[in-house]
Amino acid sequence: MGPIQINQILKSAEVGQPVEIKAWVRTKRESKNAIFISLNDGSTLHNIQAVAEPGQFPESTLRLITTGACLKVTGTLVESLGSGQAVEVKMQDVLIYGTADPEDYPLQPKKHSLEFLREIAHLRPRTNTFSAILRIRHALAFAVHKYYNDNGFFYLHTPIITASDAEGAGEMFRVTTLDAGEPPRDETGKVDYKEDFFGREANLTVSGQLEGELGALALSKIYTFGPTFRAENSNTTRHLAEFWMIEPEMAFFDLNDNMDLAEDFVKYVIRYALDNCVDDLEFLEKRQAEEEKSKPQAERSMPLTEKLRFVVDNPFERLTYTEAIKILENSKPHKQKKFQYHVEWGVDLQSEHERYLVEKHFKKPVILTNYPRSIKSFYMKVDEASDAAPAPTVRAMDVLFPGIGEIIGGSQREENYDVLLERVHEVGIDPDIIWWYLETRKFGTAPHSGFGLGFERLVQFVTGMGNIRDVIPFPRYPKSAEF
């Protein structure tokens, strides 16, 4: 299975064993008595030190061993006399796979800003920060699949190219093979998509939910985990044009079942990271503390691992949208007009409102339910009339996290054909476009629920990173499609 990796060598620490390491140089320093080369292959946060004697290798070879160079080092694992490591490699031979000219290589041993590193996304995984983030991202993705597999869900691959807009937002990337300069046109002068590859307009998906529901109405419990796309001209720390979504859909689940699953799921994957990414989380916690040391104590974040354990160990607060609005209307920020956005029943809550509920009022994650029908999607099940709310509500739920706001959005889906068709007309969707979705309500319809979790927001929360562009290897956002 290839060469033994540094994380395996450090775990075994078998002094006296011969080793062969293939890795990149982090640093090199020379003294009168020895040459020290710090190596890392990405398998762990920790480097391994290779030590050579003066004169052991030609000067022409040593000149090429610089930060960023790629080497194969053979030698023997010995006890380290220096501080910071238990073992090191006594070098016997070295092969240089690739050099990195210090005049050109941008990742020299010094602190680099996150903004600069975004400009060299092809190299930033070689830094401690981004290698830690990517290892945690992997662990979280593995935990997602393990959780659903162990709980009887089937992984469903939903299409990337679609003709439907699950959210009704219309902010979609078009997929076409037509000539952009001179596309064919119909008799009215409009672009004739019948001549296109699929014979109709097609787009990159914004969600796998609708197709996921089809799977749930046959397999009972499914989940999707794949890329989704939004053509929003949004330049915030919370939005990407390409991101990954986890979307379970479950037959015979009501809203309460949906909330129970969402809470259990997100706690599981965070706990998995706490158990399996100890070194990387500790490194990112120290990094966050260093970044915030100039802030007043009251403005600093909770230590990263403490925050994660707090989420895992405490039940989420559950309340209705109507109850949340009353709390917000009675809050000091609202009364003192410190909220940027107005609060009243019927408005779509903004991030500042969500974070107030989580971070100031309840001081723990919150699940809001039963939102106004007018601000939610057509597929959400309409609640029975109630005196508690001034207008019709739907069985929606949003899970709100500190520092993030909404991390999960979901609902019980409308299973009644007539009610769903009425909602489709109400929001202006052509029923002929989603005839297949409507038809599932005609043939053996069943109560069902589901939710969506933006994977990058989860990674952002677990790593403590402030910008979502730093938790995906190659971020896509307006005016940026490099790499």
TrEMBL record:
Keyword Nucleotide-binding: yes
GO terms, molecular function: asparagine-tRNA ligase activity; ATP binding; nucleic acid binding
CC terms in the record's Gene Ontology section: cytoplasm
EC number: 6.1.1.22
Keyword check for Glycoprotein: no
PROSITE patterns with a match to the protein in the record: AA_TRNA_LIGASE_II (PS50862)
Record note on quaternary structure: Homodimer.
Name by which UniProt lists this protein: Asparagine--tRNA ligase
Gene: asnS
